[in-house]
């Protein structure tokens, strides 16, 4: 049993808060009875909003190690292999955010619209950790520039944490701008030979091999959702 507003938010109706308002306004029914705030329901119950039945799917959460050369789109453009060709599920899932075609690593796929929104919306400040293998050694001076905040399109890129050794760097950012890591190093005259996403918020890639995927554990799902809700301004 879950709170009705949670079920509605997960079904993509609106945010939890807005769904609470819909319940308070008497616009929601559960099995034909007007729901009250605080009511709980099962995902097998018939829920309506403004008289229309809500499509409640079974929620799926997956972690994929996206291999290089695969695109993060749902439609098959130009005959390229997509992450949807790798992940086979009964219910449709969607990638949360994007990775470049040549970036590897952690990609979350889900049909939980609320979690996807929490993880990708800039206001939630979600941390992402990357490993970049560069064509040259990263010097102290370059490291300093990165730490100060390199300007890209007139906006500095804030790096929460960076560790570098020779031509390898791991960095934690909460940016969602396209090609941001590659562009950062390009500004320093370096080329990113390999880019791997190691972590998104509290979820780590771990030992998943490229092309492999697994369901998230209940604990991992709870860690992602509960730490995001109510902690909107702090990096996760
Ligand atoms: N930064 C990039 O440059 N590429 C990605 O895929 C992700 C972050």
How would you explain this protein's 3D organization?
- The protein is 24% helix and 29% strand.
- It contains seven helices and 17 strands.
- The protein has helices at 4-10, 16-24, 83-86, 113-120, 140-148, 180-187, 218-228; strands at 2-3, 28-30, 33-34, 40-41, 47-49, 52-53, 61-66, 94-95, 103-110, 128-134, 151-152, 155-156, 159-165, 168-173, 192-200, 203-204, 213-215.
- The strands form four sheets. Strands 7, 8, 9, 10, 13, 14, 15, 16 and 17 form a nine-stranded mixed sheet that branches.
- A hairpin with a 2-residue loop joins strand 13 and strand 14.
- The radius of gyration is 20 Å and the shape is elongated.
- The model is unreliable at 232-236 (pLDDT under 50).
- It binds uracil (URA).
- The site of uracil (URA) has 8 residues, from helix 6.
Comma- or semicolon-separated keywords:
single chain, 236 residues, alpha+beta, Structural Genomics Hypothetical 15.5 Kd Protein In mrcA-pckA Intergenic Region, Chain A, Alpha-Beta Plaits, 3 domains, nine-stranded mixed sheet, 7 helices, elongated, disordered C terminus, binds uracil
Shape, principal axes of CA atoms: elongated
Q: Tell me the series of helices and strands, N- to C-terminal.
A: EHHEEEEEEHEEHEHEEEEHEEEH
Q: Characterize the main sheet.
A: 9 strands, mixed
The ligands bound in this entry are:
uracil
- CATH topology of the largest domain, which one? Alpha-Beta Plaits
The radius of gyration over CA amounts to 20 Å
Tally of DSSP helical segments: 7
Distance between the termini: 28 Å
Portion in helices: 10-25%
Q: Which structural class should the secondary elements be placed in? A: alpha+beta
Portion in strands? 25-35%
Total beta-strand segments: 17
Low-confidence stretches: 232-236
